[in-house]
Amino acid sequence: MDRRDFFKKAFSLAAVAGISSIVKSIPLPAAQKDSQNKKPPELVAVRNGTPEEMFDEGIKVLGGMGKFIRRGQTVVVKPNIAWTANPQGAANTNPALVKRIIEHCFGAGAKRVYVFDHTCDDCFTTYNVSGIEKAAKEARATVVQANKESYYEEVRIPGAHSLKKVKVHELIIESDVFINVPILKHHSSTRMTCAFKNLMGIVWDRSYYHRTDLDRCIAEFPLYRKPDLTIVDAYNILTDGPRARSIEDVVNKKMQLLSKDMVALDVAASKILGEEAENIKYIKIGNDLGIGNSNLNEVNIKRIDL
Q1: Closest CA to 302 of 128, 9, 16, 54
Q2: Residue 241 pLDDT more than 60?
Q3: Do 285 and 217 meet the contact criterion of CB atoms below 8 Å apart?
């Protein structure tokens, strides 16, 4: 069995196991079911809608964008715009989702919304081909570059072992609200890229992560700043990533996850991807650092089937 066939088989299993366990029936201990249902959801899992429809429903269940943004605040919306690939390639965040998130931000009273990513390919080409620059500007966001070191400022990471300091894009430091919008996909180095790994697009020297301890650096960055909200784009899933290579590697899942808890999100996302969360090292490290909760039995999850 070659590598591509392996991932296709994994995804056929995920369609049965992953989707049903996340959206339909993540099992909760009997003693927790009633008490958790009375609490506001900590994670929302939506499926079977357009990216816009799923976000509209998901954010409504979380209390609306006004729960995360106050009138007059500045917001950073950070999609994955790493690769020169069109939306059908599933290498970057879906532009329709980015646009709808920005619209909700302004609807909640945001003064200004910025969109950027430290791209892997040429930023001007990638911003254009991905469709995200156009979608963001149509929603009145300010699209900025992240391709020069002068845009970054050095910060220290409290409690970090490997990533003790790093240069972070100035907008992450200056903006009031930080919204993380990764696309879920396979990654050749870490098995998966999602909530945690998308934050590599806000630092300058990503090669330091690879030279040092990739998984630990990924897990330690949120000790500096966690996103105020993360929306996982799982509408289309890339099974052989992170770069789009063939349309045959794209699986249409029509799913979306929303939460403040990056650890719980990445555990849930791993199930959709057909991966074992235990095999994704940065998830365990993030849990151990107290960044979030990897035990989905302890997370109040609201499932929506459109």
Answers
A1: 54
A2: yes
A3: no
